[in-house]
Amino acid sequence: GGLGDVLGGLPPAMAANGHRVMTISPRYDQYKDAWDTEVTVELKVGEKIEPVRFFHCYKRGVDRVFVDHPLFLEKVWGKTASKIYGPIAGEDFKDNQLRFSLLCQAALEAPRVLNLNSSKYFSGPYGEEVVFVANDWHTALLPCYLKSIYQPKGIYKSAKVAFCIHNIAYQGRFAFADFALLNLSDQFKSSFDFIDGYDKPVKGRKTNWMKAGILESDKVLTVSPYYAEELVSTVAKGVELDNIIRKTGILGIVNGMDVQEWNPLTDKYTAVKYDASTVTDAKPLLKEALQAEVGLPVDKDIPVIGFIGRLEE
User: Which residues form the Starch synthase catalytic domain (predicted)?
Assistant: First the structure.
């Protein structure tokens, strides 16, 4: 969805502007071009110490890093017939808090421990002069671990965190008793503390990861200026976090388009390629092909209207 699109398109655009850019995501599959760096780190997750490995590939100026751990790999669609976030829509896997705690901690380790030399402009570890862009609730613990584990030791002293909201509807709400799983000190409790009007997954007092991400980060972003306005407009539109976002402020930066991926001259999904000079000839032919493919009357004079949006309950 939108999050995948941003993670796919924004980093190469930032790299083209001269930044050194790394993305960090779970290794949900045996990605054929991502190689084992053989770098491992041990992280405290819940009660246990878990070893994770980093896999890596370099594409379009971006270091793509994948966090390897059975908690991620065993959830792969097709291998277990289950989904990435839960067994069915709207339900969390029991270990989601542990899985995403692991991701956040691994993301803080990667810039320091990975000695990457793919780029002709940059070499070695990224070091500590970095900005983390945390996306949605799964990454909301990152600023908390940054403040509780690293900065007290004098590490990442000048690092900053921008928290980007793609979809306010999913916030990572869990039982308040589960706060102990996160291995965070009590000073963070108020940032997570949340009472909502819903009974699921539990009734009453909860933790809310997204609330903590918003409050503990240096900057809160979202994917369009209009969505930024929407999130603070009403309780319903901000899904009960509107008051928190009003407190911190939010900046809407419209999602860009990856002009390399969506170039009609090289698009592998279309039979007729075109550019600005041939667009008027190509478009009617492509429209007829689309009409035929989806079973509509084939007629170049009938308008076809496309809509991209989110379908949920």
Answer: 1-247
